[in-house]
Amino acid sequence: MAPASLSERTAFTIEQRDGAARAGVLRTVHGEVRTPAFVPLASHATVRSLQATEVAELGYDMVLGNTFHLFIQPGHEHIAELGGLHEFMAWRRPIVTDSGGFQVFSMGHGSVAEEVKRRSPGRDGEPNVIEVAEEGVRFRSYLDGSERFMGPETSMEIQAALGSDVALAFDECTPFHSGRDYTARSTERTHRWLDRCLEWRECHASPGQLFLGIVQGGVHRDLRVASAERIAAAEGIDGVAIGGSLGQEKSQMREVVGWALDALPDRLPRHLLGIGDVDDVVHAVGAGIDWLDCATPTRLARHGTALVPDPEARWRLDVTRPPSRSSREPLARGCPCPACREHTRAYLHYLARAKELTAVRLLTLHNLTFMAKLVEGLREAIREGCLAEHARAILKGRGPYAAENGRAADGP
Hints:
Strand order of the largest sheet: 4-14-13-12-11-10-6-5
Distance between the termini: 55 Å
Number of helices: 18
Largest sheet: 8 strands, parallel
Strand content: 15-25%
CATH topology of the largest domain: TIM Barrel
CATH class of the largest domain: Alpha Beta
Structural class: alpha/beta
Number of domains: 2
CATH architecture of the largest domain: Alpha-Beta Barrel
């Protein structure tokens, strides 16, 4: 018997609107997710440097586990034997797992930035991706170089074993520089893979596990629209994710996302994959995205960079640089995180330059506090009908810490 559809489960409810933006609730087996939401990455069953309880205390309702990485190590069967991903990592709230498709793309073409710049991720002349075929993808494990395989059924099996609350369809993330013909063929294959995912789920899906199809189509409007319509029309999906290479510039990315959103029915929740810059989050929420995931806040922290309300610096402060060496200022005025409450930029500069693990922890706590407060403010602005005004203020450099200060702090 096929899993119940979203409408039967009423898993997603839109409670308030402000223009195209929506504030609502996603209901899952492990609790509710307030939307719009930012979803931190727990790629390897951990938000790096933090305990699960710390992430929850920051206000996050959901994290993202990486199907590909957990397949490689420690293995989905091992995690299932130990009670599933929630029990394994002691995270008691909802988990969304990606399909593994993006990681296959990254192994073959590098990160989106590397691929756009035509940098190759291969080592010693050996291709990481051996073959992308109708059956699935054969690739070399980054762990030991052994040949591995992942297809739609494999991805579904892994995500079921992990026990995530929201699973994503297996897809091919088309490279940015692919021509239109290849992108069209790739997108059609993604649609066929969706059908195979749904067929597998009819017999094997975990009760209550929600399922999202993924819109592809590259930077071609007709392909994006056709993909969005095809995914939304499939029986058995509970929402839609927008993935793939979205373009070379922010303006193009927002245009591509807009094409997909315009073609989607209002009732389905929308997940924007891999987008997390402050301005991109603000624009995406305003366009009608319900949640986003991205490695940016935690990756920046590992490289000594804090998120601050400074648009001219792309909301970034590199504490390893000389201006922070003797600064007695906090990272951001009004921020309630321990890095800002208890320490100066000078101390964080020293820790980061010395490569102390404490620097990574403090900067991660700070950056995830920034993102949590950012989306909390966006949610409240939607509910109060003032999103446009609030968004303009954030994009001009107002801090997201209004709840702690009566008003948001300005500037870093």
